[in-house]
Structure formats: C-alpha cells, structure tokens
## 1
Amino acid sequence: MNKLFTTLFALAVASATGGAFAQASAPAAKPAAAAPKAAAPAGAKSMEAKIAMCIGCHGIKGYQSSFPEVHKVPMISGQTAKYIVAALNAYKNGDRKHPTMRGIAGSLSDADMNDIANFYAAQATKAADSPAAPEGKVAELYAKGNCAACHGKNLSTPIDPSYPKIGGQHADYLFVALKSYKQDNNHAVGRSNGVMGAIAKQFSTAELKALANYVSTLDGELSVHPEPKFR
Ligand code: HEC
Ligand code: HEC
C-alpha cells in the first residue's frame, strides 16, 4: 500500500512537472493562457497539480481497484460538489475506511477539496428526463428503500447537495459501496453513515446487488472524463 502510494505520488509529481514544462515550451501563439498562471499567488497550486493525483484512477475509463474486491473506481465527473467534499472529509476523518482514499484525502487541505470538487462537478452531463422504472422484485426493493426520495429523479437530482448522484454509476462500485454501509468492526472496510447505514441494513447482500445493477442502468450525469492535456 505504501509502495503504491509512493508510486502514485511520484507519478503525480511527474505529471505536474510535465504539465508545467508543456506550458513553458508552448508556442507563443497563446500568451494569454500563461499570463494568469504567472500572476497566481506564490505557493498556490494549479488545478493540474491538484488533480494530478486523481486522474491516474478516476480519469481512466474502466480503471479497476482490487480492494476489497475487484470493481471499477467510482465516476466522480459530474458528481455534486458538496458531496465530493463530504466524501473526502469522511475518508480524512475515518468515517469511510478505504485505506487508499484515506491516505489521499488526508493529504488535501479544505481549499484543495473545494477546488477539486468544483472542477469535477462542472463536468456533469445532462440526465435523461424519464427514468426507466424498476420492474418485478427490484421494484419492491426500490419502493422499500425509498431511494428516489433522497437521490431524486433518475437518482441523479439529490434533494440535498451533500447527497450523491448515483444513477448510471458503475454497478460493481455501487454494490461495494452499499455493502460497506452494512460493514461494522472492520478496520479497512466500511462507512459509518447513519442515513445509508439504516437503509442498507434492511437488505440482504443479494438484494443490494439487484439494486446496484438496476441503479447502474439509469441514464445519469456521471462520467469518466480523461484529462489528456494534464498528462
Ligand atoms: C489508487 C486509485 C485512486 C486514486 C489515485 C484516487 N482515488 Fe478516489 N477512489 C478510489 C477508489 C477505489 C474509491 C472507492 C473507495 C470506497 O470504496 O469507498 C474512491 C472514491 C473516491 C470518492 C468517493 C466517490 C463516491 O461516489 O462516493 C471521491 C470523491 C474520490 N475518490 C476523489 C478522489 C480525488 C479527488 C482524488 C485525487 C486527489 C482521488 N480520488 C484519487 C481510487 C482512487
Ligand atoms: C433518507 C435519504 C436516503 C435514502 C432514502 C437513500 N439514500 Fe442512498 N445515500 C444517502 C446519503 C446521505 C448518502 C451519502 C452517505 C455518505 O456520505 O457516505 C447516500 C449514499 C448512497 C450510496 C453511495 C454512493 C457513492 O457514490 O458512494 C449508494 C450506492 C446509495 N446511497 C444507494 C441508495 C439506494 C439503492 C437507496 C434505496 C434502496 C438509497 N440509497 C436510499 C441518502 C439516502
């Protein structure tokens, strides 16, 4: 884990340096773009530097994590800004136990979190107007959990900005996330959130999987947004 983190950090530094070099050696045709950068207060990090550490996982289509089981990393482009900040703080303070994200969030200041959250939130795509209604057994589970009451239409218009958009999120990630709200007493896996904990605990693992599969089929506002210009 430490080695992975060191490698990631090295990558982050390398790509940040690469970005700066590309900027410095860019043809003189675009001087306007460079000017505001030079005027930034000393010590202020560029947006490229702030997200350099994120794009190696969240900016690659289909990128998978193998912990605690193999699943795609969550899409964060298009997610609500307040939720991104809330999630990062939950990793930082230990309410969310995922070790890698804890290490990463712990290195971010409040200002970094806000800037990063606004950057990713601005990448939202428009969700479809009419949700595909759940059918059969899933319709029962969906009604029992009252999912749309908080996550909104298409599960993409949450009633509170600190709640996540989940429509169209990767099914395997949704399943891992839902199970984590049921997990107590494990030092590396679990999320202590009163609201989702109470909901997830009403369902069996198989039922959570069925819900995750359905939620992933909705037309949502989340996407993976590669950042080739930052590499
Ligand atoms: C090594 C790969 C990796 C890197 C690098 C990484 N993440 Fe993550 N991120 C993950 C994984 C895996 C999860 C899911 C963790 C869990 O199960 O709670 C996650 C979860 C998140 C979440 C919660 C998403 C949700 O829907 O609840 C946010 C927000 C997030 N990451 C932001 C970031 C930011 C910002 C950065 C860069 C500063 C970053 N991540 C760097 C792998 C990574
Ligand atoms: C009373 C409001 C409420 C209801 C009802 C609700 N949720 Fe949530 N949900 C939340 C909140 C708040 C969070 C953020 C929790 C956190 O910070 O970890 C959340 C988080 C989630 C996440 C994690 C998202 C991510 O990106 O990691 C999933 C998945 C989820 N909910 C699915 C569901 C499903 C499926 C249902 C219906 C069975 C449901 N929720 C019903 C409020 C609700």
Note: Strands lie at 64-65, 71-72.
## 2
Amino acid sequence: MGCIATRNKFLKDGEDKDVTSVITNKKKIVLAGLKGSGKTSILQRLKHNTFIQAVPEGSSMSIEQISIKDDLDFLIYDIDHQNKKQQTCHLAEADAVIYVIDSTDIQNMWRVKEDLTRISNEMRYSESVVLVLFNKFDLEDALDANTMIQETGVHSELDLDVFIQKCSAKSGQGLQEGLDKLINYFVRGQKSGF
Ligand SMILES: Nc1nc2c(ncn2[C@@H]2O[C@H](COP(=O)(O)OP(=O)(O)OP(=O)(O)O)[C@@H](O)[C@H]2O)c(=O)[nH]1
Ligand SMILES: [Mg+2]
C-alpha cells in the first residue's frame, strides 16, 4: 500500500533504460506528534545528520526524501499538528507513521494518548506500522521509557504494529536504532517491539 516503484535514481537521462534491474522502493512515512515534540528537528537530523534549531515555519508541510539503501527510499512528510485534514489524507496512504513524543512534557501525555487513539482510528483499514519515538532523552527531566509507555498507552491505544525507541534529535542518539526497526520491518518483515 502506498508503495511507489520507481526506476533506480542513479540512472541518468539518456542511459539505456533496460540495463538496470534495480527498482527503488519508496515508503511513504508520516511524521506525527504534538506541537513542539521535535518532528522537524528529527527530520533535519535524519536528512543532514545535524541538529538545527528549528524555527517556526510558514508552511504547514515539508517533505524530505532519504535514501536508506540502494533500493529503498523513505519519503517523509512533516505535517503541522494543527492541520488534521491534511494529516488524515496522508495517513490513509502511509506505509508507516513516525510518532514523536516529547519525553519531558508530562502534563500533555493525556493529549498524546488521545492523539494516538485518533491516529489508530484513522488507520484502522491500513496495514501500516508505527514507530513511536520518545524524543528529548538528552534532557534531565525526561521520563523513563516504562512510565512513558504507561502514560501514553502506546500499546493499548494503537491497534497496529508498534515499535518504540527513545532518542534525541539533539545528540542523534537512538535515531538510527529507530530507523533500523522500520527498515527491518520493511525488508525482513520483522515485527519485534521495544
Ligand atoms: N533538548 C532537546 N531539544 C529538542 C529535541 N528535539 C527538538 N528539540 C527542541 O524542541 C523544540 C521544538 O522542536 P521542533 O522540531 O520544532 O518540534 P516540532 O514537533 O516540529 O514542532 P511544530 O512544528 O511546531 O509542531 C525546538 O526548540 C527544538 O530545538 C531534543 O531531542 N532535545
Ligand atoms: Mg515542525
């Protein structure tokens, strides 16, 4: 579902188009999460391997293509949390959701829980997978992972395959491990959890 097969992006115009047998698989991934959870910072970290202090943007959506392997690209949609209509439309055709949670934002964990329930409802007919990122783990007041799991109800609210990873967009820690869980899911069909 949502998987667009395209020719190898290394094939240049004018080259013999029959030579390649490599087909690049593009997986559509929607970045979701409450305002300020770190979605844009994570996307910047994945794309440029650096932490860029995010500035509020005028645009409500940005899309980045990240090359994972020769035959696998992730097309990542960073959609403004307020723009529910646009999110709904992209969730319907997403191969995966990366759901970002600010691990220090204890007073909004109930909102996260509500948001996860909404996303699960919207994706009830899809066979997507959700990678939940407990972000901002570099900060001292970050909650521990078990508390986060309980407070947000990631396992009870999401009726989908779920992977969990703690990470920091600031230090970069944990992001590759999170991506690896998605890659293993797509490439080998692995459904391991935490
Ligand atoms: N310490 C720390 N700060 C972070 C981390 N990730 C994001 N931030 C900060 O958190 C704030 C919000 O980050 P954004 O990436 O803009 O969050 P967002 O989810 O894209 O926010 P919206 O687009 O407004 O919904 C910024 O000040 C970031 O610098 C992290 O891992 N550690
Ligand atoms: Mg943002």
Note: Helices lie at 39-48, 84-92, 109-122, 145-152, 154-157, 175-188.
